[in-house]
Amino acid sequence: MPISSAPLPHAFFDRPAPLVAPELLGRVLSCTLPEGTVELRITEVEAYQGDDPASHSYRGRTARNAAMFGPPGHAYVYFTYGMHFCVNLVCGPGLAPSGVLLRAGEITAGLELARKRRATSRTDSDLAQGPARLTVALGIDRAQDGVDLHGPVLRLLPGSPPPTELVRSGPRTGVALGADTPWRFWTEGDPTVSPYRAHTPRRG
DNA sequence: TGTAGGATTACCT
DNA sequence: GGTAATCCTACAG
Q1: Range of the domain at A29
Q2: A136-174 pLDDT, tens per residue?
Q3: Number of domains in chain A
Q4: Which of residues 31-90 of A touch strand C (CB under 7 A)?
Q5: What is the pLDDT of residue A204?
Q6: Residue at A43 is within a domain
Q7: According to DSSP H, which parts of A54-104 are helical?
Q8: Rounded Cα gap, residues A147 and A164, in angstroms
Q9: Cα–Cα distance between A110 and A35 in angstroms, integer?
Q10: Which pLDDT value is given to residue A177?
């Protein structure tokens, strides 16, 4: 097996999410399911941790967010808005609840399968442009909640991080609380980065 | 080009 | 009963 396919070590994730998040840009998440393998080069992420009111872990552990309270280096998959899945990479340190939401990326392998899953996409750059689109393209759902990132299904590979001058940070997208915390990180100029949208309250 | 509203489940108040 | 780490479609300009 080539060296480049060895996943990032456990210690990489065993730090607070805001420190891990910018280092995830350019890394490759591989997802292997019976239909095939899709690989994604990460271009946009957001960090969340326990003492942050916008984090799912802020009010303590529930059945839904249990994976965030588990060991680093695993996936936390949650269901939201009645129809969408989003995936986080669980960080630390230790069992401290923190994680990095994967918001967007570029499909680098399994393009045909990703196009099939994301049939409404008009272009390849929007196959994984947005956190819920990303999980559809990779085939991630509740079955991957709590799954190890060093296993046969999910693997986080070293990839090729962008030069530091292209790494940008700013407020997180669509969050109502803690909107002033610059824990969104993206690769400047990458066409797969999702457009920033401030939180918009819903009307009844 | 942009804005508005619907879909639909888990969780919290 | 209201809101949410969202996406898609429709329709106005």
Answers
A1: 10-187
A2: 999 999 999 999 999 999 999 999 999 999 999 998 887
A3: 1
A4: 46, 48, 54-57, 68, 76, 78, 80-84, 86, 88
A5: 46
A6: yes
A7: none
A8: 30
A9: 10
A10: 72
